[in-house]
Amino acid sequence: MSPRAEQEVLFANDVFYRAFAERDFRAMDGVWARESAIACVHPGWGALAGRHAVMESWASLLANPRSPTPACRDPRAFVYPDAAFVICFEELEGNFLLATNVFVREKGAWRMVHHQSGPTADRPAPEAVRDDRGPLH
Amino acid sequence: MSPRAEQEVLFANDVFYRAFAERDFRAMDGVWARESAIACVHPGWGALAGRHAVMESWASLLANPRSPTPACRDPRAFVYPDAAFVICFEELEGNFLLATNVFVREKGAWRMVHHQSGPTADRPAPEAVRDDRGPLH
Lengths: 137, 137
Prior knowledge:
Two copies of one chain form a homodimer.
Chain A (H helix, E strand, L loop, with lengths): L2 H19 L3 H7 L7 E3 L6 E2 L1 H13 L7 E9 L3 E10 L2 E12 L2 E11 L6 H5 L7
Parallel strand pairs in A: 1-6
Antiparallel strand pairs in A: 1-2, 3-4, 4-5, 5-6
């Protein structure tokens, strides 16, 4: 994989978690693919398929001040010619989930087509926990 | 997406679960990509990255007669030009997990590059539970 593509994918992943943390639905809407089929598995939920169902779930989550907003830790990108996925920890009040985020290229930009997050017994490396600033800073 | 590509991806997903159920390491080895970076998140585990770590985990799981072998239920394929993912339930002794399986094309064949499975409160549609024969029969 090219270092540039890897950086672009990690940036797209970062934009997703910033939109999540800032409860910014417009930014979240921009993260997700518009021309490709999408799906989403929130922790413990069933699978949501299609843009309407997926974005409705985000609108509901981001509008709820009690819904948790995870911080991304230790993201690792796996990049193929026109698709990629990122594995990362999601830190929620000292607890950790592990997420898979899948991206495809749409008009040259990496857009999310799938997110699944679930429990893990693993923990990020200590330096990844200490670095509060995301992978690109 | 073309119906043929969707069928090919669902077949590759089916081969994965058959290898799992039959504890067939050679078939499992053939399911996973050889030329592309791979990763795997078994339920509750941390992420494994790289062919050596991923295949070692499968060798260990398939060699252990006490490790569970899930049946695939209600698989749904999301296919892009050179990549795809399948979301499906995994049934284990009446319990259900939800899995994401990511595939890329290698020399024309769909090969797995990532698997993540975790708990879900959802259940497959009744007809998917009743159909024991997989999606292609």
